[in-house]
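Minutes, project check-in
Item: structure for the 101-residue chain
Input as provided by the requester:
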Amino acid sequence: MKISIRSENGTAIAMLSGEIDHHTAKSLRSEIDRFVITMQPDRLAMDFTGITFMDSSGIGLIIGRYKLMKECGGQLEIRSPQPYIRRVLKLSGIERIVKIV
């Protein structure tokens, strides 16, 4: 699992690649949270272009970052999930609280 986070015009963009499962979710959570708490962005965009697999740990990761951004007065969006991941997100109801683009 790889992650790189950059700030662009008040948006933190987290580029994710690899698999999101219970082994990788904890380190992703720590890195993203540290960046958000330090930088206080208006928006967090989690780019899923490079995600090849995601289990329920990915749903937990998203919900936790949604709550963090809400507490900070910001918004979360998920960018470019693969079609099967988009389907999982839709079935989980995430699209009702998080913008998926």
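Outcome recorded: The chain has a mean pLDDT of 96.
No further action items on this chain.
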